[in-house]
Design brief:
Two copies of one chain form a homodimer. Chain A is an alpha+beta fold. Chain A contains 13 helices and 18 strands.
Chain lengths: 457, 457
């Protein structure tokens, strides 16, 4: 059996930056490294071509009576710039203390190898393990997974026979506490451009006769929230579900302190609707956020201009049960209804992503039709984590979005068990990214125990 | 006597771009050209050193019983770029049709030479003309006149003995209609910066717990106007004077068409307070304008960020009787009072300029203490323009700001007679600037007639 630490070094040495065509060789190297490793474990490996970077589909088939788990991961990494901030070279794996440093160590090479190693050890110990396993490993995650949706639609029939998806591409608060991500927010993006006069105007010669596009957009933006911190669009909250007591209780167990969070953000005060904590707001409520606003003079000092145009970039985060297309339509109609006279508005819809939630078994809001295998996976996770980590996992929704998880649910009907392995100090997407090798060791044991339990009904 | 057209060519050949140190020789050449011309006319010429470009102070002294007029102008010009858009070289004067082309032909070399020529002819015809004349010609107008305020304060005692200032650095709507600019708006600039979190945040991980600085500033900006197009700051209009019927009547005589103006601006609708025309709004009402707004992601597509900071650049245009420092204080207190919790505001006051208004004699609101010489100047202007241009001049306020005119009033107590000589097609500050030689000819005759009338009580 291979040594996962040595394999992680090999994997990191392949500079697989998907967004930069200069790293074509590194992308191929990383793909071949993963494909080869899975082949050596006896998997049927198919390298599925896409418009850009192939997806690795590796299967361990078996009779339909065996449970079937899909393990997701990605072999591509973020760019490593700025390189001069790295203490050791980004693509030269280096161990310092109990950490392996290198681009992609945590996101996602270490966690992916955690599951590959678990499967490898399990199959070595029990070559006849009654479990179907499919690895589905993409190379475009850091680019927004453009080929992933088309892929799962093309392979729908083969993939939807699975019982659930197992992955590690989320975080935990510390080395002691496992968190299973039980929900992700969805996303709807749009941009609004307001155009007033034909060209920029002198604010002395013409100021006072026309609506300044900056003013028009500022007034429009100001209309989109209520003073108490809610989104001021009719129907925006209609599909938001009540939060269950067990979810609030999980959050309470997390024990995060508002004052610490406030200091971490560096703000004077939180801005949340009455009766909601910031930790609840970020997980359980949708948002409408201004990601960029621009118009007129942007340089030093002043320039007496009335700009011809101004723009605002908006994203809404959505929570479970909200539908991106519906929310986009609500936002667009509100903006159109409030469009100020005297400027022309252009609304450009952007990308979107489904929100996602999964409820572990035995909670008040667990769907009655939850797959028995998924329920067993959650129970096995509880048991494995409690034994290996010394305390039960927490099931928490997160504020971020991983659109592929909602897409998998929508296209394949499959839920995901997201086992967190990133620590806050792993520096994802930043210089000196690293992965904690103790977490990796516990992760391998946990994954192995969960998969083994699934195979024994 | 010199030929003004030949002299204008000589003047234009000196590339006197004040803002660009590469044109040091051109600046000196232009200064020496003007100084020499005035010396040849018998003036005592003093070249007053400043931190950058000297001011020419040329005097024709006389007994205190003689009226005393200061003629203002500037010998510096705007940069000529982009040079490739000029049909003939920018600093090679070229006559096409009845126009002299070249950088500075209109702004301000032609109009300045108009008055110099008028004075030269007048003194040649009547060497004993009982009129004190002071030329005050600066070289930094196109840079915002930084040395002009210190200069008039340093020479206050000598200058304040004048009766009024006579200049041509404003426009007329067409070759037939003389306009005397009777008012200019003042200016107050400030910048507001809102800072929220320590650094840009991921809008998924943290969206919904804090006030986005873009949202904070948008809401603040939206509070600064009423829906009917007025500035929503207590006391903002307190010192604005009622517009007199005679002023509305002058505007009516101008005969500008709203529909033409709307098309020129390229807007769907004007945005003015009820009962006010756009032509009135731009002249008689103060404004609060957003000249720039920036925050968050400015590039293509979307980026899911909550920015750490956002800024807005504001200028207010002020009308007669409003005091810049008072308006600045009102705006700052309104912003401070409305400062949203959860962001830190930094308000940076910028530059300011006094508004200005002068009322010709015999109007209902002419100040009772108006200098008799100024009143004679206006009456002489009426007579001269009516005779030479075939119709009486219009006395109109303008929306723009020429801060030195308010500064002259405040420091020296002197009003200005601003005789317009620019036509809309003169291309000021743009390629292919030119000056209409027929307007110059009429201007010389008009200036001469006015000055002659002043000398004959």
């Amino acid at each position: 059996m291979f040594d996962p630490v040595e394999k992680l070094k090999e994997f990191i040495r392949q500079p697989s930056v998907s967004a930069d065509s200069k790293f074509k060789d590194g992308m191929r190297g990383a793909q071949e490294f993963v494909s080869g490793l899975l082949r050596s474990m006896g998997f049927d490996v198919e390298v599925v071509k896409t418009d850009l970077h192939p997806i690795i589909l590796a299967q361990r088939p078996g009779p339909a009576s065996w449970p079937h788990v899909i393990i997701y991961g990605h072999y591509d990494v973020q760019p490593a710039d700025p390189l001069n901030l790295w203490e050791s070279p980004a693509f030269e794996p280096t161990i310092r203390g109990n950490r392996m440093y290198g681009r992609g160590a945590a996101d996602n090479k270490g966690p992916l190898l955690t599951h590959i190693t678990a499967v490898g050890q399990l199959l070595e110990e029990n070559p006849n393990l009654p479990l179907r396993i499919t690895f589905m490993i993409e190379g475009e995650e850091e680019m927004g997974s453009p080929s992933f949706g088309p892929f799962i639609r093309a392979y729908r029939e083969r993939l939807k026979s699975a019982d659930f998806v197992f992955l590690s591409d989320t975080g935990i608060p510390n080395e002691q506490q496992m968190v299973i991500t039980a929900g992700l927010r969805g996303l709807v993006a749009l941009e609004v451009e307001a155009t007033g006069p034909n060209s920029d105007l002198h604010s002395g010669l013409h100021g006072g006769v026309l609506l300044n596009p900056i003013q028009a957009l500022a007034e429009l933006c100001a209309s989109l929230h209520t003073p108490d911190g809610r989104v001021n669009i009719p129907g925006f909250y209609d599909d938001v579900l009540d939060v269950e007591p067990w979810e609030r209780e999980e959050l309470r167990k997390l024990g995060a302190k508002e004052e610490d969070y406030r200091k971490f953000l560096g703000i004077d005060a939180f801005h949340v609707p009455p009766g909601i904590t910031p930790f609840e707001a970020v997980r359980f409520l949708p948002t409408l956020e201004f990601n960029g606003f621009g118009g007129g003079y942007q340089g030093e000092g002043s320039k007496t201009v009335i700009p011809s145009r101004a723009f605002v970039k908006i994203t809404c985060r959505l929570v479970a049960n909200q539908v991106p297309d519906k929310i986009r339509a609500l936002v667009i109609s509100a903006i159109e209804a409030r469009a100020p006279k005297g400027v022309r508005l252009k609304i450009v819809p952007g990308h979107s992503g489904e929100p996602y939630v999964v409820v572990p078994p035995d909670r008040t809001n667990t769907p009655k039709d939850q797959s028995p295998v998924l329920a067993r996976a959650f129970r096995a996770t509880d048991a494995a984590v409690t034994e290996i980590w010394g305390r039960a996992p927490l099931y928490l929704r997160e504020g971020g979005s991983v659109p592929i998880i909602g897409e998998i649910k929508r296209v394949l009907g499959l839920d995901s068990v997201m086992m967190g392995l990133f620590l806050p100090q792993d520096n994802l997407h930043a210089p000196n990214e690293s992965f904690n090798l103790e977490v990796m060791k516990k992760g391998i044991a946990t994954s192995k125990r969960i998969l083994a339990a699934l195979a024994q009904p």
